[in-house]
Amino acid sequence: MFSVNTKAFLLTFTLSFSLIGTAWAAEMSHEHSTSSSSPAPTASTAGNHSMDGMVDDHSMPSGMSHEPSSGSTHSMDGMMDDHPMPSGMSHEPSAGGTHSMDGMMDDHSMPSDMNHDDMMNHHDMNMPMAGTAHDASSATGDHDNDTTHGMMHGDASMPNSKGLYKVTMMNPPDWTMDEASIIQVSVQSADGQTLTPSALSVQFLSQESSGHEHGATSASTLVVDATPSGNGEYTIAITPNKEGNASLVFTVQGPKGTGAEVVPIHVRTSPPNKWFLSGFGLFVAGTLMSSTILRNKRQLKEV
Amino acid sequence: MNSTNKVNHDDNRQPYNLLKNRWIKGIFQSSLYPRVFHWITVTVFALIIYVTLFGSTNASKNFGTAATWVLWWPLIPLFFFLFGRFWCAICPFSWLSDTVQKYFGANRPVPQFLKKYGLWIIDAFFLLITWSDHIWGVIESPRGSAYLLLIIVALVIFAGAFWERRTFCRYICFIGGLSGNYSRAGILELRATPDICRNCTSKSCYNGSDKAPGCPMFEFPRTMEDNTKCNLCGYCIKNCPNDSIRVTPRVPTKELWFIRKPKMEEAFLAVVVMGIVLIQNLTMLSIWPRILEFTQNLLGTTNYPVVFTTIFLVAMAIPFFALWLTSAFSRVGTSDKTMRNLTLFGYAIIPLDLAAHMAHNLFHLLSEGKALWYTFLNVFTTVSTPASLAFVDNGTIYILQILLLLVGFIGSGYTAFRIARNHYKEQGKMFSTLLPHLIFLGLILIINIYAFSLPMAHRV
Question: How far apart are the C-alpha atoms of B344 and A136, rounded to whole Å?
Fold first, then answer.
């Protein structure tokens, strides 16, 4: 049916594209699976679906930052409403410092030109069912503004801590999206005494908006249990699945009860898939070499 | 005197030729046309590839995503309507194909299977890309967009390296297939003047000359009857020694009234596009989760690819079978078979396709358009994005969408009327063949109006 040349072309084409397609599918299904993992059972129990966009969309007074600095210990329980903070307060602790900012939620004042209704309209979220890739990151621009309101406030986005514990990251890594990092943490009581909790787990929660006006949703990962590594320290492997501002929510079960401590982190963007780029490069190089050979043969014949 | 009057009368009957304007003719004959546009599109395309590959993975912060899916994709149907396939002449892929061909091209003839099944390949490609977007989230993922563009780049390089002229653009590109259909409803056409061409022996419009290459789309202007392939690159205008080529404004949809050789694959693409608009709307609506949940319960699985593929196939099949059913009613009492009727009237969907496509994307363009500016600034520096990226409020967008849909419906309805008149008037079946198709088009209109009235998701 086809000439030898056509068959050769088709074979080269099919093989090369299988390679590229496989790498692409692998890459995209990875992105997909991580993004669609947001409604993971534990995460949904915690009701984390209204987290996103809080960092970007609510301004803080000048000089304030969500950026964490390395080696610091944070406890920022109750900040989920993320109201602008009074001047002089910072989400960003100085290096090595230990901060406890529990209970800030009630004290935050809003700028005069912003009220709760405005904020809710900006985050007029339409939270669809769990498990759909598109909905996990879709923003809705409804015509009628009739989607669910008010998810920002009073929503149990993060477990509510009573300020029972402080979690310290011993070796804060340079977080990169989709790249596993192993961290070591130690747990102390609120008054600074080292504790040995009965269980420690952590969950990654992105605080980046995935869309505008209405679509702030969170990218979270499954809860990961920490492994004791001696000396009251724990080892945990975490793979952030979204770039930008995020939080690690440590759930501590210890002698003082169950508490959740939030450590803000910043995640760098991931590089493109090397396999895909390599496959693409090989395909292009192979194609151009093959065509050049054919071209030269034809030119020789013509001469 | 009589002779002069006759000549004037004949002149009046000639279609108006824009090339009679020396400025327009000068542009087409300039060696910079369409090259100068290529410089712009290739530069922007290179930037898009760079930022989608190495920039933010957050679509709302990535210029490549915003430029591709908030600006280019919404504007492209309008472009096809106004200027036919002119985009194809300035598309960065066509430049890439030409460049690869110039330095590495084997210039083999186009394989027969591409000639024979090219449109079906385009149909399949279009469906595959839409499906893979929903499975892997291509549009909302800058990396996904980059990989999609690079796969197309690879295809272009492959076609340009082995086959002659712009094989990719004519036989493989899914946008080319779409633009071919849409430009048929458009307001501009390029044609040769048969009386002048009759005595031409050079055929330089097809073969090329020292002024320009031959038609890159394998068209022979002398026999060209439709807009599906011509990309207004102007090579034939430069090459023609007899000034036979004319560029003429025309009544929108007129080309669809007189399809001499209707092709099932072209009609199928029109129906497929309606299915795609349907599924694109569906997945961005607030009722989508309920549809997913219903299908999950029906299938007994929560596997997203399985569930989505099922919905996708149904969404694609619904317009096709609805049209088939319509054609089955429409053909009653005529000498045509159902598939013949379907193929003929399939072309009537194109104006509504175009309108629905534009209406859907109008939402993205007008409600997220400012993203283009802020994401562009983000390439160079860090800027905070305002809470709203909209140019106008949603109510205004909805009104514009409804107006577009109504115009599309009128275009489709009138096209169906002309098709019925041309093919069935002599059999005395004009209205009986037309009525079912008008009802079908009306149903599509109502579904679209309802879909656009529901809350819709943003792209960035």
Answer: 42
Of A6, A126, A291, the CB nearest to B104: A291
Integer Cα distance of A80 and A152 in angstroms? 8
Picking from A3, A131, A134, the nearest residue to B134 by CB comes out as A134
- Is residue A26's pLDDT more than 70? no
CA distance A206 to chain B (A): 12
Residues B323-348 have pLDDT tens digits of: 999 999 999 989 899 999 999 999 99
Size of interface A-B (CB pairs under 8 A): 211
Write phi, then psi, for B245 (nearest 5 degrees): -80, 140
- Within B167-263, residue ranges assigned H as helices are 167, 174-184, 194-197, 204-207, 235-239, 254-257
* Domain parsing of chain A, residue ranges: 4-28+274-302, 36-267
Q: Which of B222, B279, B270 is nearest to B246 (CA)?
A: B222
pLDDT one-digit tens code per residue, A149-187:
223 333 335 556 667 888 888 888 999 998 899 999 888
Q: How do beta strands A244-254 and A181-189 pair?
A: unpaired
Chain A, 67-106: which have a CB under 8 Å from a chain B CB?
A: none
Nearest C-alpha in B relative to A128: B289
Residue among B141, B289, B390 whose CB faces A135 most closely: B289
Q: Is A265 helix (H, G, I), strand (E, B) or coil?
A: strand
Rounded to whole angstroms, how far apart are CA atoms A55 and A95?
21
pLDDT 10s digits, A195-233: 777 788 898 988 876 544 333 344 566 788 888 887 778
Predicted pLDDT at A29:
54
CA A14, chain centre distance (Å): 36
pLDDT digits (tens, 9 = 90+) for A59-84: 333 333 333 333 333 433 333 333 33
Question: Residue B375 carries which side chain, given as an amino acid letter?
Answer: T
B53 interaction partners in chain A (CB closer than 8 Å): 272
Please, which residues bridge with residue A200 across strands?
Answer: A252
Instruction: Give the residue among B254, B208, B260 at the shortest CA–CA distance from B234.
Output: B208
Q: Tell me whether A292 touches chain B (CB under 8 Å).
A: yes
Specify the DSSP class assigned to residue A74. E
Domain boundaries A36-267, corresponding CATH code: 2.60.40.10
Contacts of B96 in chain A (CB under 8 A): none
Query: What was the ipTM of the complex prediction?
Result: 0.87
Residues B409, B355 contacting (CB under 8 angstroms): yes
Q: Mapping DSSP to helix (H, G, I), strand (E, B) and coil, where does residue A254 land?
A: strand
The answer to whether A9 contacts B162, with C-beta atoms less than 8 Å apart, is: yes
CB of A298 less than 8 A from some CB of B: yes
- DSSP sequence for A127-154: ---TT-HHHHT-EE--SS--S----SSS
Q: Which of A24, A57, A287 is facing B157, going by the closest CB pair?
A: A287
